[in-house]
Amino acid sequence: MKINPGQRATGVIKSFQDFGAFVSIGLVSGLLHNKNIRWGRVEHPEHHLRLNQKIEVIILEVDKTKHRVAFGLKQLKEDPWEKFAEKYKIGDTISGTVLFKKPYGLVMLIVTGIEALLHKSELPEATTSDDPLAFYQVDDAFEVVIKEIDLNEKRLKVSLFH
């Protein structure tokens, strides 16, 4: 079987690792890395795929010298960032939900596949508290203002809407 980047193929999920799933298309096996499973965060591939599941993939890379093949799944679906960039601009107000806290701020889900950073310096409690993140919990939802959209890096920075 001759395979080339850009080709679509039907494969079967053969095993999982923390970093992705191994997919077999006939006699060829390759990696479907977590970052290529879906638009948005993938903590572990087993949360989104099943062992022996048949899936359509696109061949992203073929490295004949290392005998490696890289597959993509999310690449078969529309990139949510494109639609987001058409609809929103810096200064627009949008809704977000806290996914988790990091030492530097809140990571918020805006729409499926798009997360935003609300830096702790943007929180009103930043001037009065040693730990401004303590005032916020996972699943809190509120309005935020878009401060920065980086389509190349797929990053979004927001501040609280006052």
Task: Provide structural commentary.
There is one protein chain. By secondary structure, the chain is mostly beta strands. It has 2 domains: 8-76, OB fold (Dihydrolipoamide Acetyltransferase, E2P), CATH 2.40.50; 80-160, Nucleic acid-binding proteins (OB fold (Dihydrolipoamide Acetyltransferase, E2P)). 5% of the residues lie in helices and 47% in strands. It has 1 helix and 10 strands; from the N terminus they run E-E-E-E-E-H-E-E-E-E-E. The strands form 2 sheets. It has a 5-stranded mixed β-barrel with strand order 1-2-3-5-4. The longest helix has 8 residues, at 80-87. The protein is elongated. The model has no long low-confidence stretch (mean pLDDT 94).
Largest sheet: 5 strands, mixed, barrel
Give the total of domains: 2
The assigned CATH architecture of the largest domain is: Beta Barrel
Please trace the helix and strand order, writing H or E for each element.
Answer: EEEEEHEEEEE
Q: Mind telling me the CATH class of the largest domain?
A: Mainly Beta
| Strand content range | over 45%
Notable traits:
162 residues; mainly beta; OB fold (Dihydrolipoamide Acetyltransferase, E2P); 1 helix; elongated
Quick recap of the structure?
The chain has 162 residues and is mostly beta strands. The chain has one helix and ten strands; from the N terminus they run βββββαβββββ.
Topology:
Blueprint: E1 8-17, E2 20-25, E3 28-33, E4 54-63, E5 68-72, H1 80-87, E6 93-102, E7 105-111, E8 114-119, E9 141-150, E10 155-160
Parallel strand pairs: 3-5, 8-10
Antiparallel strand pairs: 1-2, 1-4, 2-3, 4-5, 6-7, 6-9, 7-8, 9-10
